[in-house]
Specification:
The complex is a heterodimer of chains A (about 300) and B (about 450).
Chain A: H1 2-45, H2 51-54, H3 65-71, H4 74-107, H5 110-125, H6 128-138, H7 145-152, H8 167-194, H9 199-207, H10 212-240, H11 244-250, H12 256-259, H13 262-272, H14 276-306
Chain B: H1 2-31, E1 46-52, H2 58-71, E2 76-82, H3 87-94, E3 104-108, H4 112-116, H5 138-143, E4 145-146, E5 149-150, E6 152-157, E7 160-165, H6 166-171, H7 180-190, H8 205-214, E8 220-223, E9 226-229, H9 234-250, H10 263-266, E10 279-283, E11 293-295, E12 301-303, E13 312-315, E14 331-336, H11 343-353, H12 356-364, E15 368-369, H13 382-392, H14 403-408, H15 411-420, H16 425-440
Parallel strand pairs in B: 1-2, 1-3
Antiparallel strand pairs in B: 3-14, 4-5, 6-14, 6-15, 7-10, 7-13, 8-9, 11-12
The chains are: A mainly alpha (about 300), B alpha+beta (about 450).
Subcellular location (chain A): Cell membrane
InterPro entries (chain A): MetI-like (IPR000515), MetI-like_sf (IPR035906), UgpAE/MalFG_permease (IPR050809)
Protein name (chain A): Sugar ABC transporter permease
């Protein structure tokens, strides 16, 4: 008895150390690649740091003054509310449409499925600037295909309609672009998860009299929940960090201050106004916000992992 | 374990590289011995000139490199081209670092105050007269000046003027307007539902401020080192109201548009369709995007540069009581980095740039020479004449330390859009004065 139990124990002991050793390179890369910028970010946010400091003048320590000023700025709160709403709407839309496409892929025959998969991969692989440019052209007020189509369909008020003039329709176009670019990832991930749902279980449910909706709600969703959760979490994090798409769309003429999201706000503060300290402070707030928004999901993921 | 080892090696490699690069800065930093004012021949070195965008033609770059090498035996000049888009960012990171700073830099004229007010450029007041003095384009000199000292001088200028469809104006029985109000009436008359009399987006404040300047208004004034936004000044209000009226009665372009490729609007559409505008305002180089289609030597389809003078033409924006309205001039300034380790060589390069030969070369390539003695090199066709005439009357945006912040936050874009949408000019002016004044002084 003693020999049989001690052997695995030592083996387990050796195993227990190995994972940590294997973690070292990843942690080291993270510490160097992320740790230093975050450290610098936090330090900067606690000092007065603008263009003058960049050119060698002393940067006095101001404690949390940058944070209190930023938090007291109504512009920040407008941007935060806008960003969180935009992020949640887009994340849920993306996951919803992605799941729909994944179900569709499972239902159609092989050739159609391959066509679907290839076109989605192409959409996903398209460089972002190129994609946004094409969408901008599609929605162009003068020569855009969208306006032309709407006019052909009888909606003559869309002749020369400017989609970027109002924040709401601006964000509608932005959402179309972002959802279009992120659906393939969700659809393909969920499709992969769907192939793991055993046919016997689905069949058993059907024999028990469950319709397609009930099967999906009570069999499929619980079984692919881990994938759904992580995909939704990633979408939320990604959509909160949206920057370039909005910036590129703003360049085609939009009410800039009313369409800024957090990323654009930081860019304006840091790169535009060279107020590096405030930009750093807002960045830290975004980090906190990301943790706050995604924390419930991370916790449930951890819980599921444990069970 | 192999992964661990290779990762460790990789990290060690990165650290070694980092060590190398930080080690190499020391000799470079200590090698600079030619402080400003040193009269002895400077130590031979390679200096770097940053040009912005592709505006400086290759022929001029070659001339600078060759001439610099001839006049400074043993030294060489390297020219690096930076994109306009991230020029300010690049300058912000490179200028403070003696080991990496370019020695001489081109910077957009309105970007100059951002750097001059912070001490990023070397004081070249003592060279001012030698380089041209009062002959240099004064609006550009002023924007590069702080407390009476010159830090940045004009490199070249462009100007903006009106491009119009002469055939359409003629058909309507209209001739070139001589006052600003005539212009407003003419382009209003020319507007149809499918054609702008004068195509201009609502956010195009760089065009719009001409109406402010024409009425004697200012965007901001300086008093004892403090800047005040003066949108509420009666003259500025008059200008803004005139612009509002002309936008609303003559332009079909949406209020949120800016920097549209207006030159396309003047060209005939596909299959000879009518143009989308009878008049536009644009920088001089827009000429080469306007005209009838033709083939160039390479066989590509290009515009003929307004060859048909019965169809296309240009005129300066007229002033309120005739003459020429002050427009916002495009162009660049040039300056020496304060941290440059080769101040004397950098100054020698400036001498070449401001030499009669180089100034003439600028003009021959269509770039407005900084020194007014050489503007005749631009030629004597209608484009050159209009360019010289409008540039002489041109104005620049305020040389305030926070000007870059105002531009970065798109404040004037927002203001002009709201005016274009029919907002109450007086109320908007008051609201934006309160917003802009602290920004101009670098306070949020």
């Amino acid at each position: 008895m003693t020999t049989t139990t001690s052997a695995p124990r030592t083996r387990r002991g050796r195993r227990a150390r190995l994972p940590y050793v294997l973690l070292i390179p990843a942690v080291a890369v993270l510490a160097v690649g992320m740790g230093y910028p975050v450290y610098w970010q936090i330090t900067t946010s606690l000092h007065t740091y603008g263009l003058a400091q960049q050119f060698g003048q002393p940067a006095p320590f101001v404690g949390l003054a940058n944070y209190t000023r930023i938090l007291g700025d109504e512009r920040l709160w407008a941007v935060v509310v806008r960003s969180v709403l935009f992020c949640l709407v887009n994340a849920f839309l993306t996951v919803g449409i992605g799941v729909g496409v994944a179900l569709l892929m499972r239902a159609v025959n092989r050739i159609v499925r391959v066509v679907l998969q290839v076109s989605m991969l192409l959409a996903w692989a398209m460089p972002m600037v190129a994609a946004v440019t094409v969408w901008k052209w599609l929605f162009d007020w003068r020569t855009g295909v969208v306006n032309w189509l709407l006019v052909q369909l009888g909606a003559t008020s869309y002749d020369q309609h400017n989609w970027f003039a109002q924040p709401l329709s601006f964000f509608f176009v932005a959402s179309v672009i972002i959802v279009w670019m992120s659906v393939p990832f969700v659809a393909l991930s969920v499709f992969a998860a769907l192939t793991q749902v055993p046919d016997e279980v689905v069949e058993a449910a059907r024999i028990d009299g469950a319709g397609p909706v009930a099967t999906f709600r009570w069999i499929t969703v619980p079984m692919i929940r881990p994938v759904l959760a992580i995909v939704l979490l990633l979408q939320i994090i990604w959509d909160l960090r949206v920057f370039a798409q909005i910036r590129l769309l703003q360049d085609s003429g939009a009410p800039v201050s009313e369409t800024n999201l957090l990323g654009n706000f930081i860019f304006e503060l840091g790169i535009g106004r060279q107020d590096f300290a405030s930009a750093a402070a807002v960045s830290i707030l975004v980090l906190a916000l990301t943790v706050l928004v995604s924390w419930p999901y991370v916790r449930s993921l951890l819980k599921e992992d444990r069970s | 374990m192999r992964i661990v080892r290779s990762a460790a090696l990789a990290i060690a490699g990165v650290m070694a590289l980092a060590a190398c690069s930080s080690g190499s800065t020391t000799p470079a930093a200590s090698s600079g011995s030619d402080a400003p004012g040193t009269s002895a021949a400077p130590e031979a070195a390679d200096i770097t000139l940053w040009v912005a965008g592709g505006d400086t033609p290759q022929e001029l770059r070659d001339y600078l490199i060759t001439t610099f090498a001839e006049q400074n035996p043993g030294s060489t000049l390297t020219i690096e081209q930076q994109d306009w888009g991230d020029l300010v960012t690049k300058l912000t990171t490179a200028l403070p670092d003696p080991a990496n700073t370019p020695d001489v830099v081109e910077v957009g004229n309105t970007q100059s105050p951002t750097f001059t007010t912070i001490g990023a450029f070397a004081d070249i007041t003592d060279m001012y007269d030698e380089l041209g003095g009062s002959k240099l384009l004064q609006s550009f000199v002023d924007v590069g000046k702080v407390d009476g000292k010159n830090y940045a001088l004009p490199y070249y200028f462009g100007s903006r003027y009106m491009f119009y469809r002469k055939d359409i104006w003629d058909a309507a029985g209209l001739s070139v307007p001589t006052t600003l109000s005539d212009f407003a009436a003419d382009v209003k008359q020319l507007r149809t539902d499918t054609m702008s009399g004068f195509a201009m987006g609502g956010q195009d404040w760089r065009d719009g401020i001409s109406w402010v300047f024409a009425n004697g208004g200012e965007l901001a004034t300086q008093d004892g080192g403090t800047w005040t936004s003066t949108l509420s000044d009666p003259k500025t209000i008059t200008g803004l109201q005139q612009w509002q009226s002309i936008y609303q009665t003559a332009s079909n372009v949406p209020a949120t548009e800016r920097d549209v490729a207006y030159w396309d609007f003047l060209n005939d559409g596909t299959d000879g369709a009518a143009p989308e505008a009878a008049t536009i305002m644009a920088p001089g180089w827009a000429r080469w995007s306007i005209g009838d289609l033709t083939k160039n030597d390479a066989g590509d389809e290009v515009r003929d540069g307004m060859a048909d003078t019965s169809k296309f033409g240009v005129f300066p924006l007229p002033g309120v009581d005739g003459g020429v309205a002050p427009v916002f001039a495009g162009g660049s300034n040039i300056a020496i980095s304060a941290t440059s380790q080769h101040q004397q060589l950098a100054r020698n390069l400036l001498k070449i740039i401001f030499s009669p030969e180089y100034q003439t070369m600028l003009g021959k390539h269509g770039l407005g020479p900084a020194n007014s003695d050489y503007v005749s090199s631009l030629g004597d066709d209608v484009f050159a004449k209009t360019m010289i005439e409008t540039a002489a009357a041109s104005k620049l945006t305020p040389a305030a330390p926070g000007w870059a912040a105002v531009e970065a936050a798109f404040v004037y874009e927002d203001l002009f859009q709201k005016i274009a949408e029919g907002g109450d000019v007086t109320a908007l002016a008051k609201q934006y004065d309160e917003k802009i004044t602290p920004m101009l002084n670098g306070q949020g």
